[in-house]
Amino acid sequence: MVIRVAICDDVPDLAKTIEDLMLDYDSSLFEIDIFYSPFRLIEYLEAHTYDLFVLDIEFPDLSGIEIAETIRRHNTSCPIIFITSFKEYMEKAFKVNTFDYILKPVTKASLYPALDRAIKYLDLDSSKFMFTFNKVFYSLSFSEIIYFEKNKRSVLIHTPSGTYETILPTKTLLSKINEHFVQVHTSYIVNIRHVKQISHNTIIARLSGKDTVEIPISRKYIDHARTQILMKLRDFI
Amino acid sequence: MMNKQDSRKKPTNVYLQMTLASLILVLILGSGTVVLSESTFINNPKSTLVLIAACVIYMNICILYFYRSLGNYYKQLERATTQKIAYEAELRFFKQLKHSQAKLYAMKHDLNNQYIVLMGMLNKGDVAGAEKYLESSMQKVEHLDYFFTNNYVLNYLLNEKKSIAESHGVTFNVKSFLSDKITLDTDIIAVVLGNLIDNALNAVLRLSNPQEKEISLLIKQFDNNLLIEITNMFDPTELGTRKNRQIKGIGIKNIKRIVEENGGIYRQWVQDRQYTVSILILNVYETEINLSPVH
Q: Residues 164-183, chain B: which have Cβ within 8 Å of A?
């Protein structure tokens, strides 16, 4: 899988340095486009999209934050990395959900950890969850599954677009899922990436937009679930 | 904080009250016995039993009362101790404030002198010299105060801890990306961070190899979640002293409790002699992403 990257910096040398560092990191992983003008990038975004943005925060006519605001109108989750000369960051940087903030000059030591985390966040694992129900074959990407609910013999698969059903014993289900899932209850297995909040007896997961769902968590699984959630999320915060 | 009148009852008061009450009751019972000794009432074994039972019940009531008073007393004592700790912390804060205020006055004084020097240079037309002078003093200012976050309390705390660490020859690396507008109370983060840094600093100071005297702190916010992670080298043979350290400050157990009460997850582990504490607090910031179409 290839990660489509947009680099935007009005200083060609700096943009080139970032591109070279990224190609040094893994030449086959990134497909990089460079923009010297933020307006060109904004115009291009009308019809195109990227998986990762590396933006200079200071431009003569426009701030990197404004580019990020435009990006967020189309894509709420892609990682945005800002490059800056100032240690002080603006409150606005949080409003656009900045992924990382790197001080100039950009070096391997500062860029590579951010790339490591961005790659983990983008989750390049393209394997799917496959199942059959009523003799129909289904294939869902793991990232779109919010949680599994066991209901007697059947398993309900909850996604933002709707609920699917299949018949599977819990053991088989657990062997089929990837490391982003954690069992929180005898009847519930949750996708860690969708966890919004955790309390002593419930987990609140994001469904779609501002909609959430409350999933019970049992005493037996809580400790393990908490550890898994921390260990997974710390990889890409 | 301590201006409330101390209305606590001392246990001696309880003893005094009980002794007085008992004395009065014994007197009443005694005089009653004398008065009634002539009558047949006291000679009746049943009435003696009733009297003994009444005494036992009275004693039980006294003991219950005693326990209740003692319980209240200890509760108040605990409250007073907590207040004392809070008061001491406040006092420490004001002392630090006084210290930084003094530093500020010294800086103001220095600045005045620098302006005089600059004025002199510019009067003489020595622009290059003035530029050089400005450059060097700007570098000095940069080293005086570091920027970690727009939250001035946390920024002050991190600066203080960094200067303490550096005065002990400890390298203290901080990467911080934290909003001023998170929903979590600053006091909570300050208590957690302050204690985590103190614990790490104490552990690192006991190490003999100066190259290992390094602490790395990461405070990072993304996707409405906050990650606080502190790493330092640690001598695993030191388990005994670690136990001592837990008694000091508010202790690891309390940090864990504070974190979990605020919807967070606390984990600590040792890997390759490296001690890591990782804290994840979920849903601390609500991103307002404007999803209106592009014009």
A: 177, 179-181
